[in-house]
């Protein structure tokens, strides 16, 4: 079965992961986020428990 031969596919997978890790990923991480998170404190909302009719 030729699909079980890892020779060409392993090299293609390794080459694609190296391309992603060394070239594409640093370029993506260098981009500035268009919507940076704010330093505003999060507010917690008061929730009321649900009264189930069968309990």
Automatic annotation (TrEMBL):
<protein>
    <recommendedName>
        <fullName>ATP synthase complex subunit 8</fullName>
    </recommendedName>
</protein>
<keyword id="KW-1133">Transmembrane helix</keyword>
<dbReference type="GO" id="GO:0015078">
    <property type="term" value="F:proton transmembrane transporter activity"/>
</dbReference>
<keyword id="KW-0406">Ion transport</keyword>
<keyword id="KW-0375">Hydrogen ion transport</keyword>
<comment type="similarity">
    <text>Belongs to the ATPase protein 8 family.</text>
</comment>
<feature type="transmembrane region" description="Helical">
    <location>
        <begin position="6"/>
        <end position="24"/>
    </location>
</feature>
<dbReference type="GO" id="GO:0045259">
    <property type="term" value="C:proton-transporting ATP synthase complex"/>
</dbReference>
<keyword id="KW-0066">ATP synthesis</keyword>
<dbReference type="Pfam" id="PF00895">
    <property type="entry name" value="ATP-synt_8"/>
</dbReference>
<keyword id="KW-0496">Mitochondrion</keyword>
<dbReference type="InterPro" id="IPR050635">
    <property type="entry name" value="ATPase_protein_8"/>
</dbReference>
<keyword id="KW-0812">Transmembrane</keyword>
<dbReference type="InterPro" id="IPR001421">
    <property type="entry name" value="ATP8_metazoa"/>
</dbReference>
<keyword id="KW-0472">Membrane</keyword>
<keyword id="KW-0138">CF(0)</keyword>
<dbReference type="GO" id="GO:0015986">
    <property type="term" value="P:proton motive force-driven ATP synthesis"/>
</dbReference>
<keyword id="KW-0813">Transport</keyword>
<dbReference type="GO" id="GO:0031966">
    <property type="term" value="C:mitochondrial membrane"/>
</dbReference>
């Amino acid at each position: 079965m030729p699909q079980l031969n890892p020779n060409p596919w392993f090299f293609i997978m390794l080459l694609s992961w190296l391309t992603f890790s060394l070239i594409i990923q640093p370029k993506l991480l260098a981009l500035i986020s268009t919507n940076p998170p704010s330093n505003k404190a999060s507010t917690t909302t008061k929730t009321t428990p649900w009264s189930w009719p069968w309990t």
